[in-house]
Design a protein that fits this description.
This protein is an alpha/beta fold and 103 residues long. The protein contains four helices and three strands; from the N terminus they run E-H-E-H-E-H-H. The chain has a domain of 70 residues.
Length: 103
C-alpha cells in the first residue's frame, strides 16, 4: 500500500493550466475515467468552482483529490525533503531567514 492508500489501483492525474476555474462538468468527466480502485488527482492553476468541489466531496466510491496551485505548492514545500533531487531541480526551494521580535 502506498501513501495514498492504493493497493492495486492506479493513480490517474489530469492537469489544466488556464485562467478560468474548473467547472463541475470537467470534474465529472474525469471521474468517469476512474475505476473503483483508482485515485484521481486533478491539478489546475485556476482553482475549482464551488460546484466542482462539492462534486468531488460527494463521491462515495471514487477517490479524487482537487489541487489548485496553492495546495500543490504547499504539498511541495511540506514534502520537499523527501522528493528526489532530480525532481527538486524542477521547482527548487531556498530557505529564507528573517528576524523576529523578542517575545
Amino acid at each position: 500500500m502506498d501513501p495514498l492508500g492504493i493497493g492495486k489501483g492506479r493513480i490517474k492525474v489530469q492537469v489544466k493550466r488556464r485562467a478560468d476555474k474548473i467547472a463541475v462538468g470537467e470534474v465529472r468527466s474525469f471521474l468517469a475515467v476512474l475505476g473503483d480502485e483508482d485515485v484521481g488527482i486533478f491539478v489546475t492553476t485556476a482553482g475549482f468552482t464551488t460546484e466542482a468541489e462539492a462534486e468531488a466531496r460527494s463521491q462515495e466510491r471514487r477517490r479524487i483529490m482537487l489541487l489548485d496551485a496553492k495546495r500543490l505548492f504547499d504539498l511541495w514545500v511540506e514534502h520537499y525533503d523527501n522528493i528526489p533531487e532530480t525532481q527538486r531541480r524542477l521547482l527548487p526551494l531556498r530557505s529564507v531567514y528573517y528576524l523576529t521580535p523578542n517575545e
